[in-house]
Amino acid sequence: MISGRYWIAFQSIINKETNRFMRIWVQTLVPPAITMTLYFVIFGSLIGSRIGDMGGFSYMEFIVPGLIMMSVITNSYSNVASSFFSAKFQRNVEELLVAPVPNYIIVLGYVGGGVARGVLVGLIVTLLSLFFVDIRIHHLFVIIATVVLSSTLFSLGGLINAIYAKSFDDISIVPTFVLTPLTYLGGVFYSLTLLPGFWQQVAAANPIVYMVNAFRYGFLGVSDVSITVAFAVMLSFIVLLFSIAMHLINKGTGLRS
After folding, report:
1. What distance lies between CA 77 and its chain's CA centroid?
2. In angstroms, rounded to a whole number, what is the distance separating the alpha carbons of residues 149 and 122?
3. What angle do CA 94, 25, 165 make, to 5 degrees?
């Protein structure tokens, strides 16, 4: 729990982060909505009609949860990565570091901003998907918990990326060469049961597989992995990345000249 005297600092950082992406909503909220709409049209309506059913559901129904989760992941990550690096670049982060505020408040504040954008984009994409498919909800708690945990995890990842980044070009390296491949290989467009045994074991090492399947279970009630294991993986990665982020900030890595 955040003590009362630090609550104002925590709330101020979240408000700053939320106002930042809401002020430029044309750049932060509209592009993912357009991108996901194109996915719905191309993969769902055009290609999906040729593929047929997947796991007992229409292909459109099957991929919608994965596409929503993909938008949540990418936007949570990019929000914190760009915002924290901008604070580094403009030397604003030094004001936070010398303020009488614990470093964990700084981490939680930036992560909270990333979660807010990820959840908002996920909600927008969900509403857009209603124009293409009738969404069914199997387990609302699983949906909410998966979105919050996934956006928290990748917000922490974006923060770590920003800490190490030395230029704006470094911000795009991880999303391009790590995040995008993991997302496309995370079971968004297919069931893991279609893969040969060896590649199913390889896919089990991809954390996004667990997020996509847990989210899909919340909507459709089907999953290629155990829901208990999925939540355990998400929580474990959150603890790991939070510990790394705290260690880097306490040490001043990439923050102090």
Report:
1. 6
2. 13
3. 35
Average pLDDT along the chain, 257 residues, taken 10 residues at a time: 77 93 93 91 76 80 92 95 89 81 92 96 94 89 96 96 88 86 88 85 91 95 93 97 95 75
What CA–CA distance (Å, rounded) separates 73 from 190?
A: 18
Amino acid letter, 243: S
DSSP string of 101-150, one letter each residue: S-HHHHHHHHHHHHHHHHHHHHHHHHHHHTTTS----S-HHHHHHHHHHH
Q: 52's torsion region: left (phi>0), alpha (psi -120 to 50) or beta?
A: left
How far apart (Å, rounded) are the C-alpha atoms in residues 3 and 126?
Answer: 35
> Which amino acid would we find at residue 35?
T
Instruction: Please tell me what DSSP assigns to residue 193.
Output: G
Hey, how many other C-beta atoms are within 10 angstroms of the C-beta on 127? 11
* Rg from Cα positions in the chain: 19
